[in-house]
Amino acid sequence: MRLTLIRTAPRHVAPTVIGLLALILAACSSAPPITPQPSGAEPPANCPRVEDGVLDFSAQDLEFSAPCMVAVAGEAFTIHFVNNDTQPHNVAVFTDSSKANEIMRGDIISTQGDALDYEVEALSEGQYYFDCSVHTDMNGTLYVVAAEG
To answer: Which of 86, 51, 87, 81 lies closest to 66 in space, CA to CA?
Structure first.
């Protein structure tokens, strides 16, 4: 008969290991970083803004109607997207240009003149990246700013 000895770790090691595991899990599960808006900086004036919960946006001649959009932090909104082009288009929003963390991807509109409403969840203040999933060179910045008041 063969006996196997099993050594157990001292009792003071278990809390340390549990603490390290909790720290690692917290780091891995934290929200992706958002690029902050530079202090005091305003989005460009030519960026369409959410009004009454809706942001009007379009595509034509393989370009978006503007290189940027502006929304208010903490408020969900709708992108009313019109495809004025003969090419298919959509809008997809990501935390940054790496496109590792997708926030929203709208359905592709293939017919010229058709429109769709894309619902976007409330976002934290900062800068986000958007593009057309079909034509990724069509892209821009979504500025999410603090509410005025």
So the answer is: 81
Number of structural domains the chain divides into: 1
Residue 47 domain-assigned (yes or no): no
Confidence of residue 148 (pLDDT cuts 50, 70, 90): confident
Give burial (CB, 10 Å; 0-12/13-18/19+) of 94: buried
9 domain residue, yes or no: no
The residues, ordered by sequence, that sit 6+ positions from 59 with a Cβ below 8 Å of its Cβ are 65, 81, 82, 83, 84, 85, 87, 89, 132, 138
Name the strand (E) or helix (H) holding 27: helix 13-29
Digit-coded pLDDT (tens) for 10-57? 555 555 544 444 444 444 444 455 565 555 578 999 999 999 999 999
Q: State pTM to two decimals.
A: 0.75
Identify whether 35 is part of a domain.
no
CATH number, domain of 102, equals 2.60.40.420
Residue 114 structural domain: 54-145
- For 45, the enclosing helix (H) or strand (E) is none
